[in-house]
Amino acid sequence: MNKSPAISLHIPPKMWSEFQKSMLKSRMFNEEVIGFLFCQRHQVSKYKIRYIPKTWVVPASDCYEHQSASGLVLKQHFHSYLLENHLQPGLDVVHIHTHAGRGIPDFSYVDDRYESEYARFISSSFAKKPRLISGVFDEDLQSGQFRMWDRKGREFENVQFCNSLFEISQNKHVMNNLDLSCDFMFARQKIFGETNQKVLNQLKVALIGCGGIGSIFAELLGRLGVKNWVLIDPDKLETVNLNRMPGATQEMVEQKWEKVHYVKHLIKKVYSEGSCVKTIPTAVESELAKQEIATCDLIVVATDNHLSRKTAQELALQYMRPLVCLGTHIEVKPDNTPRMYCRITVPPLGGGWCLMCGNIINLQRAALESAPLEINQMAVGAGYLEGVNDPAVFWLNGICASTGVGVIHGMVSGFLNVDSGIDWIYEFPGSDWRKTNTEYLQTDDCYFCGMGSLEDVVENSDFENPDFDNSDSIW
Prior knowledge:
The chain folds into 2 domains: 6-163 and 452-460, Cytidine Deaminase, domain 2 (3-Layer(aba) Sandwich); 172-440, NAD(P)-binding Rossmann-like Domain (Rossmann fold, 3-Layer(aba) Sandwich), CATH 3.40.50.720. 30% of the residues lie in helices and 25% in strands. The protein contains 13 helices and 18 strands. The strands form 3 sheets. Strands 12-11-10-13-14-15-16-17 form an 8-stranded mixed sheet, sandwiched between helices. It has a 7-stranded mixed beta barrel with strand order 1-3-2-6-7-8-9.
Protein backbone atom coordinates (compact mmCIF):
# COMPACT_ATOMS: atom_id res chain seq x y z
CA MET A 1 0.00 0.00 0.00
CA ASN A 2 1.48 3.35 -1.08
CA LYS A 3 1.91 5.82 1.73
CA SER A 4 0.97 9.39 0.79
CA PRO A 5 3.65 11.97 1.61
CA ALA A 6 3.35 14.12 4.72
CA ILE A 7 2.63 17.75 3.80
CA SER A 8 3.84 20.70 5.86
CA LEU A 9 3.67 24.49 5.64
CA HIS A 10 6.80 26.12 7.06
CA ILE A 11 6.56 29.85 7.86
CA PRO A 12 9.64 31.34 9.61
CA PRO A 13 9.05 32.81 13.10
CA LYS A 14 9.67 36.43 12.14
CA MET A 15 7.51 36.22 9.02
CA TRP A 16 4.69 34.57 10.97
CA SER A 17 4.88 37.25 13.65
CA GLU A 18 4.65 40.02 11.04
CA PHE A 19 1.79 38.23 9.28
CA GLN A 20 -0.12 37.85 12.57
CA LYS A 21 0.33 41.53 13.44
CA SER A 22 -0.88 42.61 10.00
CA MET A 23 -3.93 40.36 10.24
CA LEU A 24 -4.89 41.70 13.68
CA LYS A 25 -4.31 45.28 12.56
CA SER A 26 -6.67 44.91 9.59
CA ARG A 27 -9.81 44.76 11.73
CA MET A 28 -11.50 47.26 14.01
CA PHE A 29 -13.26 45.00 16.51
CA ASN A 30 -13.86 41.25 16.26
CA GLU A 31 -14.40 40.86 12.53
CA GLU A 32 -13.07 37.90 10.63
CA VAL A 33 -9.94 38.65 8.59
CA ILE A 34 -8.08 36.88 5.80
CA GLY A 35 -4.48 36.81 4.61
CA PHE A 36 -2.71 35.16 1.69
CA LEU A 37 0.66 33.48 1.25
CA PHE A 38 1.99 32.42 -2.13
CA CYS A 39 4.15 29.35 -1.63
CA GLN A 40 6.65 27.20 -3.48
CA ARG A 41 6.34 23.42 -3.29
CA HIS A 42 9.49 21.61 -2.16
CA GLN A 43 9.60 17.82 -2.52
CA VAL A 44 12.00 16.95 0.29
CA SER A 45 11.71 13.20 -0.27
CA LYS A 46 9.27 10.57 -1.47
CA TYR A 47 7.48 10.84 1.86
CA LYS A 48 7.69 14.56 2.62
CA ILE A 49 6.53 17.77 0.90
CA ARG A 50 7.12 21.27 2.26
CA TYR A 51 5.47 24.53 1.25
CA ILE A 52 7.65 27.62 1.54
CA PRO A 53 6.21 31.17 1.39
CA LYS A 54 7.68 33.46 -1.25
CA THR A 55 5.43 36.45 -0.60
CA TRP A 56 2.44 37.31 1.55
CA VAL A 57 -0.42 39.80 1.47
CA VAL A 58 -2.87 40.95 4.13
CA PRO A 59 -5.75 42.99 2.64
CA ALA A 60 -6.56 46.30 4.31
CA SER A 61 -10.05 46.87 5.73
CA ASP A 62 -11.23 48.71 2.60
CA CYS A 63 -10.44 45.66 0.44
CA TYR A 64 -13.54 43.95 1.80
CA GLU A 65 -17.02 44.08 0.33
CA HIS A 66 -18.32 42.72 3.63
CA GLN A 67 -16.50 42.04 6.91
CA SER A 68 -18.09 40.97 10.19
CA ALA A 69 -17.66 38.48 13.03
CA SER A 70 -19.73 35.95 11.10
CA GLY A 71 -18.04 36.13 7.69
CA LEU A 72 -16.24 38.17 5.05
CA VAL A 73 -16.21 38.83 1.30
CA LEU A 74 -13.34 40.46 -0.60
CA LYS A 75 -13.98 43.02 -3.31
CA GLN A 76 -13.80 41.27 -6.66
CA HIS A 77 -11.52 43.91 -8.19
CA PHE A 78 -9.04 43.49 -5.37
CA HIS A 79 -9.13 39.70 -5.46
CA SER A 80 -8.42 39.67 -9.22
CA TYR A 81 -5.62 42.17 -8.75
CA LEU A 82 -4.15 40.03 -5.97
CA LEU A 83 -4.01 36.82 -7.99
CA GLU A 84 -2.84 38.36 -11.23
CA ASN A 85 -0.02 40.26 -9.56
CA HIS A 86 1.18 37.81 -6.90
CA LEU A 87 0.31 34.28 -7.99
CA GLN A 88 3.47 33.66 -10.01
CA PRO A 89 3.74 30.49 -12.15
CA GLY A 90 4.72 27.52 -10.01
CA LEU A 91 3.38 28.93 -6.74
CA ASP A 92 0.39 27.64 -4.78
CA VAL A 93 -2.11 29.66 -2.73
CA VAL A 94 -2.41 29.56 1.05
CA HIS A 95 -5.23 31.55 2.55
CA ILE A 96 -5.74 31.94 6.26
CA HIS A 97 -8.91 33.32 7.83
CA THR A 98 -10.14 33.70 11.39
CA HIS A 99 -13.24 32.62 13.31
CA ALA A 100 -14.54 34.32 16.42
CA GLY A 101 -13.58 32.76 19.74
CA ARG A 102 -10.44 31.15 21.18
CA GLY A 103 -9.03 27.67 20.85
CA ILE A 104 -8.59 25.56 17.71
CA PRO A 105 -11.61 26.31 15.49
CA ASP A 106 -13.25 23.89 13.07
CA PHE A 107 -13.82 24.58 9.40
CA SER A 108 -17.48 25.50 8.97
CA TYR A 109 -19.94 24.28 6.36
CA VAL A 110 -19.60 27.66 4.64
CA ASP A 111 -15.79 27.21 4.63
CA ASP A 112 -16.18 23.78 3.03
CA ARG A 113 -18.45 25.06 0.28
CA TYR A 114 -16.50 28.19 -0.66
CA GLU A 115 -13.07 26.60 -0.38
CA SER A 116 -14.17 23.73 -2.63
CA GLU A 117 -15.32 26.25 -5.24
CA TYR A 118 -12.15 28.30 -4.82
CA ALA A 119 -9.87 25.25 -5.26
CA ARG A 120 -11.62 24.48 -8.57
CA PHE A 121 -11.49 28.12 -9.63
CA ILE A 122 -7.73 28.69 -9.21
CA SER A 123 -6.78 25.33 -10.71
CA SER A 124 -8.88 25.98 -13.81
CA SER A 125 -7.96 29.68 -14.22
CA PHE A 126 -4.15 29.47 -14.27
CA ALA A 127 -1.89 27.47 -16.58
CA LYS A 128 0.14 25.82 -13.80
CA LYS A 129 -3.05 24.69 -11.98
CA PRO A 130 -2.14 25.95 -8.49
CA ARG A 131 -3.38 24.12 -5.40
CA LEU A 132 -5.21 25.64 -2.44
CA ILE A 133 -4.10 25.26 1.17
CA SER A 134 -6.60 26.78 3.58
CA GLY A 135 -6.10 27.62 7.22
CA VAL A 136 -8.53 28.61 9.95
CA PHE A 137 -7.43 30.26 13.20
CA ASP A 138 -9.08 31.66 16.29
CA GLU A 139 -9.57 35.40 16.66
CA ASP A 140 -6.12 35.88 18.26
CA LEU A 141 -4.33 33.81 15.58
CA GLN A 142 -2.87 31.56 18.26
CA SER A 143 -4.52 28.23 17.42
CA GLY A 144 -5.46 26.85 14.04
CA GLN A 145 -5.33 24.07 11.49
CA PHE A 146 -4.59 23.66 7.78
CA ARG A 147 -5.78 21.46 4.94
CA MET A 148 -4.94 21.08 1.23
CA TRP A 149 -7.66 20.66 -1.39
CA ASP A 150 -7.38 18.62 -4.57
CA ARG A 151 -7.79 20.51 -7.84
CA LYS A 152 -11.38 19.34 -8.28
CA GLY A 153 -12.36 20.67 -4.86
CA ARG A 154 -13.69 17.30 -3.75
CA GLU A 155 -11.20 16.04 -1.18
CA PHE A 156 -8.63 17.47 1.17
CA GLU A 157 -5.82 16.24 3.41
CA ASN A 158 -4.30 17.63 6.59
CA VAL A 159 -1.27 19.91 6.48
CA GLN A 160 1.17 20.22 9.37
CA PHE A 161 2.04 23.80 10.33
CA CYS A 162 5.51 24.84 11.48
CA ASN A 163 6.46 28.37 12.53
CA SER A 164 9.78 27.58 14.24
CA LEU A 165 13.37 27.58 12.95
CA PHE A 166 13.61 23.82 12.64
CA GLU A 167 10.93 21.64 11.13
CA ILE A 168 11.54 18.73 13.51
CA SER A 169 8.80 16.26 14.43
CA GLN A 170 7.22 16.96 17.81
CA ASN A 171 5.06 13.84 17.54
CA LYS A 172 5.31 12.08 20.90
CA HIS A 173 5.33 8.63 19.32
CA VAL A 174 8.27 9.58 17.08
CA MET A 175 10.12 11.32 19.91
CA ASN A 176 9.65 8.44 22.33
CA ASN A 177 10.86 5.84 19.84
CA LEU A 178 14.19 7.48 19.05
CA ASP A 179 17.25 5.36 19.74
CA LEU A 180 18.38 6.72 23.08
CA SER A 181 20.72 3.84 23.91
CA CYS A 182 23.46 6.37 24.62
CA ASP A 183 21.12 8.58 26.63
CA PHE A 184 23.43 8.41 29.63
CA MET A 185 26.09 10.08 27.47
CA PHE A 186 24.01 13.26 27.69
CA ALA A 187 23.18 13.01 31.41
CA ARG A 188 25.01 16.26 32.15
CA GLN A 189 23.00 18.10 29.49
CA LYS A 190 19.61 17.31 31.04
CA ILE A 191 19.42 20.84 32.39
CA PHE A 192 18.44 21.93 28.85
CA GLY A 193 15.47 19.53 28.77
CA GLU A 194 14.78 16.09 27.35
CA THR A 195 12.92 17.46 24.33
CA ASN A 196 15.90 19.65 23.45
CA GLN A 197 18.17 16.59 23.43
CA LYS A 198 15.80 14.59 21.26
CA VAL A 199 15.55 17.46 18.76
CA LEU A 200 19.36 17.54 18.55
CA ASN A 201 19.34 13.79 17.94
CA GLN A 202 16.87 14.27 15.04
CA LEU A 203 18.52 17.34 13.51
CA LYS A 204 20.08 16.81 10.08
CA VAL A 205 23.00 19.16 9.41
CA ALA A 206 24.68 20.00 6.09
CA LEU A 207 28.31 20.97 6.75
CA ILE A 208 29.97 22.71 3.82
CA GLY A 209 33.71 22.79 4.43
CA CYS A 210 35.44 20.05 6.45
CA GLY A 211 38.73 21.83 7.08
CA GLY A 212 40.18 23.63 10.08
CA ILE A 213 36.92 25.12 11.37
CA GLY A 214 34.49 22.54 10.00
CA SER A 215 36.27 19.54 11.54
CA ILE A 216 36.32 21.05 15.04
CA PHE A 217 32.71 22.17 14.63
CA ALA A 218 31.55 18.68 13.57
CA GLU A 219 33.12 16.98 16.57
CA LEU A 220 31.73 19.56 19.00
CA LEU A 221 28.19 19.50 17.58
CA GLY A 222 28.35 15.73 17.33
CA ARG A 223 29.21 15.44 21.01
CA LEU A 224 26.29 17.76 21.78
CA GLY A 225 23.97 15.17 20.23
CA VAL A 226 23.75 15.69 16.46
CA LYS A 227 23.98 12.34 14.66
CA ASN A 228 22.70 13.05 11.13
CA TRP A 229 25.10 14.74 8.73
CA VAL A 230 25.75 15.59 5.11
CA LEU A 231 29.45 16.47 4.69
CA ILE A 232 30.58 18.43 1.61
CA ASP A 233 34.19 19.26 0.68
CA PRO A 234 36.14 18.55 -2.54
CA ASP A 235 39.61 18.53 -0.93
CA LYS A 236 41.94 15.85 0.43
CA LEU A 237 44.00 16.10 3.60
CA GLU A 238 47.43 17.72 3.21
CA THR A 239 50.36 18.08 5.57
CA VAL A 240 49.66 21.81 5.85
CA ASN A 241 46.27 20.92 7.45
CA LEU A 242 47.72 18.99 10.37
CA ASN A 243 48.31 22.07 12.55
CA ARG A 244 44.58 22.65 13.00
CA MET A 245 42.57 19.46 12.37
CA PRO A 246 42.01 17.29 15.47
CA GLY A 247 42.97 13.65 15.07
CA ALA A 248 44.39 14.11 11.57
CA THR A 249 47.68 12.28 10.99
CA GLN A 250 50.50 12.16 8.47
CA GLU A 251 49.40 8.63 7.67
CA MET A 252 45.98 9.93 6.58
CA VAL A 253 47.73 12.46 4.35
CA GLU A 254 49.85 9.76 2.75
CA GLN A 255 46.78 7.63 2.19
CA LYS A 256 45.10 10.61 0.47
CA TRP A 257 42.05 10.73 2.75
CA GLU A 258 39.18 12.93 1.59
CA LYS A 259 38.39 15.59 4.19
CA VAL A 260 34.77 14.46 4.26
CA HIS A 261 35.86 10.92 5.16
CA TYR A 262 38.18 12.25 7.85
CA VAL A 263 35.30 14.21 9.47
CA LYS A 264 33.03 11.18 9.16
CA HIS A 265 35.75 9.26 11.02
CA LEU A 266 35.59 11.87 13.84
CA ILE A 267 31.80 11.54 14.14
CA LYS A 268 31.88 7.75 14.02
CA LYS A 269 34.40 7.75 16.86
CA VAL A 270 31.67 9.41 18.95
CA TYR A 271 28.81 7.26 17.60
CA SER A 272 29.95 3.81 16.53
CA GLU A 273 26.29 3.12 15.75
CA GLY A 274 23.09 5.11 15.58
CA SER A 275 24.47 7.90 13.37
CA CYS A 276 23.95 8.62 9.68
CA VAL A 277 26.77 10.42 7.88
CA LYS A 278 26.68 11.00 4.12
CA THR A 279 29.90 12.19 2.45
CA ILE A 280 30.02 14.19 -0.79
CA PRO A 281 33.63 14.90 -1.91
CA THR A 282 32.64 17.59 -4.41
CA ALA A 283 32.20 21.34 -4.46
CA VAL A 284 28.94 22.68 -3.04
CA GLU A 285 28.02 23.91 -6.53
CA SER A 286 27.51 20.33 -7.75
CA GLU A 287 23.93 19.17 -8.30
CA LEU A 288 24.42 16.18 -5.99
CA ALA A 289 25.52 18.45 -3.15
CA LYS A 290 22.59 20.81 -3.71
CA GLN A 291 20.08 17.95 -3.71
CA GLU A 292 21.39 16.62 -0.40
CA ILE A 293 21.53 20.06 1.23
CA ALA A 294 17.85 20.53 0.35
CA THR A 295 16.97 17.59 2.64
CA CYS A 296 18.74 19.05 5.69
CA ASP A 297 17.31 21.03 8.61
CA LEU A 298 20.33 23.31 9.04
CA ILE A 299 23.09 24.52 6.71
CA VAL A 300 26.53 25.38 8.11
CA VAL A 301 29.23 26.84 5.86
CA ALA A 302 32.82 26.88 7.13
CA THR A 303 34.82 27.47 3.96
CA ASP A 304 37.61 29.90 3.09
CA ASN A 305 36.16 31.22 -0.17
CA HIS A 306 33.33 33.52 -1.14
CA LEU A 307 31.74 31.44 -3.89
CA SER A 308 30.84 28.51 -1.63
CA ARG A 309 29.36 30.86 0.98
CA LYS A 310 27.30 32.60 -1.70
CA THR A 311 26.00 29.24 -2.91
CA ALA A 312 25.19 28.17 0.65
CA GLN A 313 23.22 31.39 1.22
CA GLU A 314 21.30 30.96 -2.03
CA LEU A 315 20.35 27.40 -1.07
CA ALA A 316 19.31 28.51 2.43
CA LEU A 317 17.04 31.14 0.88
CA GLN A 318 15.68 28.81 -1.79
CA TYR A 319 14.75 26.05 0.67
CA MET A 320 14.15 28.32 3.66
CA ARG A 321 16.64 26.63 5.97
CA PRO A 322 18.61 28.30 8.78
CA LEU A 323 22.20 29.15 7.78
CA VAL A 324 25.23 29.51 10.07
CA CYS A 325 28.38 30.99 8.53
CA LEU A 326 31.73 30.53 10.30
CA GLY A 327 35.05 32.15 9.42
CA THR A 328 38.35 33.48 10.74
CA HIS A 329 40.87 36.08 9.57
CA ILE A 330 44.46 36.85 10.62
CA GLU A 331 46.38 39.95 9.61
CA VAL A 332 49.65 41.53 10.74
CA LYS A 333 49.87 45.29 11.30
CA PRO A 334 52.87 47.33 10.07
CA ASP A 335 54.45 47.07 13.55
CA ASN A 336 54.30 43.25 13.23
CA THR A 337 51.50 42.97 15.79
CA PRO A 338 48.99 40.31 14.76
CA ARG A 339 45.26 40.93 14.85
CA MET A 340 42.98 37.92 14.72
CA TYR A 341 39.25 37.68 14.19
CA CYS A 342 36.53 35.08 14.06
CA ARG A 343 33.04 35.70 12.82
CA ILE A 344 29.74 33.88 13.37
CA THR A 345 26.85 35.03 11.19
CA VAL A 346 23.25 33.77 11.13
CA PRO A 347 21.09 35.64 8.59
CA PRO A 348 17.38 35.80 9.46
CA LEU A 349 15.28 32.92 8.17
CA GLY A 350 12.99 34.06 5.38
CA GLY A 351 14.81 37.23 4.33
CA GLY A 352 15.53 40.67 5.77
CA TRP A 353 19.25 40.53 5.04
CA CYS A 354 21.72 37.94 3.85
CA LEU A 355 25.45 37.35 3.48
CA MET A 356 25.41 39.26 0.19
CA CYS A 357 23.49 42.43 1.05
CA GLY A 358 25.06 42.44 4.52
CA ASN A 359 28.50 42.58 2.84
CA ILE A 360 29.66 39.53 4.77
CA ILE A 361 30.93 38.11 1.49
CA ASN A 362 32.36 39.83 -1.57
CA LEU A 363 30.41 39.18 -4.76
CA GLN A 364 33.34 40.27 -6.95
CA ARG A 365 35.57 37.68 -5.24
CA ALA A 366 32.84 35.06 -5.62
CA ALA A 367 32.59 35.80 -9.35
CA LEU A 368 36.36 35.52 -9.80
CA GLU A 369 36.45 32.26 -7.84
CA SER A 370 33.84 30.80 -10.20
CA ALA A 371 35.82 31.82 -13.30
CA PRO A 372 38.00 29.41 -15.34
CA LEU A 373 41.55 28.71 -14.12
CA GLU A 374 43.17 31.03 -16.67
CA ILE A 375 41.11 34.00 -15.46
CA ASN A 376 41.90 33.14 -11.83
CA GLN A 377 45.61 33.14 -12.65
CA MET A 378 45.25 36.55 -14.30
CA ALA A 379 43.38 37.82 -11.22
CA VAL A 380 46.15 36.58 -8.92
CA GLY A 381 48.74 38.32 -11.09
CA ALA A 382 46.74 41.55 -10.99
CA GLY A 383 46.35 41.36 -7.21
CA TYR A 384 42.60 40.66 -7.14
CA LEU A 385 43.05 37.22 -5.56
CA GLU A 386 45.59 35.95 -3.06
CA GLY A 387 48.11 33.51 -4.44
CA VAL A 388 48.36 31.53 -1.19
CA ASN A 389 45.82 30.39 1.39
CA ASP A 390 45.10 32.62 4.37
CA PRO A 391 46.98 32.00 7.63
CA ALA A 392 45.16 29.85 10.19
CA VAL A 393 45.72 28.52 13.72
CA PHE A 394 43.92 25.81 15.66
CA TRP A 395 42.94 27.81 18.73
CA LEU A 396 41.27 30.63 16.74
CA ASN A 397 39.37 28.07 14.67
CA GLY A 398 38.35 26.46 17.96
CA ILE A 399 36.86 29.72 19.28
CA CYS A 400 34.89 30.17 16.07
CA ALA A 401 33.67 26.56 15.91
CA SER A 402 32.72 26.30 19.59
CA THR A 403 30.84 29.61 19.50
CA GLY A 404 29.01 28.44 16.39
CA VAL A 405 27.97 25.27 18.24
CA GLY A 406 26.83 27.39 21.18
CA VAL A 407 24.72 29.52 18.84
CA ILE A 408 23.07 26.42 17.36
CA HIS A 409 22.45 25.03 20.85
CA GLY A 410 20.72 28.31 21.70
CA MET A 411 18.67 28.19 18.50
CA VAL A 412 17.48 24.64 19.23
CA SER A 413 16.86 25.24 22.94
CA GLY A 414 15.22 28.62 22.44
CA PHE A 415 17.48 30.63 24.76
CA LEU A 416 18.98 32.57 21.81
CA ASN A 417 16.68 34.63 19.58
CA VAL A 418 17.98 34.81 16.01
CA ASP A 419 14.74 35.97 14.35
CA SER A 420 16.47 39.16 13.19
CA GLY A 421 19.75 37.36 12.57
CA ILE A 422 23.08 37.76 14.36
CA ASP A 423 26.57 38.82 13.29
CA TRP A 424 29.21 38.40 16.01
CA ILE A 425 32.90 39.24 15.59
CA TYR A 426 35.62 38.25 18.06
CA GLU A 427 38.89 40.23 18.03
CA PHE A 428 42.18 39.12 19.61
CA PRO A 429 44.38 40.16 21.42
CA GLY A 430 41.77 42.62 22.61
CA SER A 431 39.47 39.69 23.47
CA ASP A 432 36.45 41.76 22.44
CA TRP A 433 33.15 40.45 21.11
CA ARG A 434 31.43 42.90 18.80
CA LYS A 435 27.78 42.35 17.95
CA THR A 436 26.60 44.03 14.76
CA ASN A 437 23.34 45.96 15.02
CA THR A 438 21.43 43.94 12.43
CA GLU A 439 18.97 46.78 11.83
CA TYR A 440 21.68 48.34 9.68
CA LEU A 441 21.95 45.16 7.60
CA GLN A 442 18.28 44.99 6.64
CA THR A 443 17.65 45.53 2.93
CA ASP A 444 14.18 45.48 1.37
CA ASP A 445 15.27 45.29 -2.27
CA CYS A 446 18.15 42.79 -2.16
CA TYR A 447 18.35 40.75 -5.37
CA PHE A 448 18.99 37.57 -3.35
CA CYS A 449 16.87 37.80 -0.21
CA GLY A 450 14.21 40.39 -1.05
CA MET A 451 10.80 38.91 -0.26
CA GLY A 452 7.48 40.56 -0.90
CA SER A 453 5.39 41.24 2.17
CA LEU A 454 2.52 43.58 1.49
CA GLU A 455 0.60 45.33 4.22
CA ASP A 456 -2.39 47.49 3.43
CA VAL A 457 -1.79 46.63 -0.19
CA VAL A 458 -4.84 48.57 -1.35
CA GLU A 459 -3.17 51.90 -0.69
CA ASN A 460 -0.51 51.40 -3.37
CA SER A 461 -2.46 49.39 -5.92
CA ASP A 462 -4.52 50.23 -8.96
CA PHE A 463 -7.20 47.61 -8.46
CA GLU A 464 -9.88 50.32 -8.23
CA ASN A 465 -9.02 51.37 -11.79
CA PRO A 466 -12.18 50.79 -13.88
CA ASP A 467 -10.04 49.34 -16.69
CA PHE A 468 -8.91 46.49 -14.47
CA ASP A 469 -10.50 43.21 -15.61
CA ASN A 470 -12.04 41.04 -12.90
CA SER A 471 -14.29 38.88 -15.02
CA ASP A 472 -12.78 35.60 -13.77
CA SER A 473 -13.06 36.31 -10.04
CA ILE A 474 -15.52 34.36 -7.90
CA TRP A 475 -15.08 36.34 -4.66
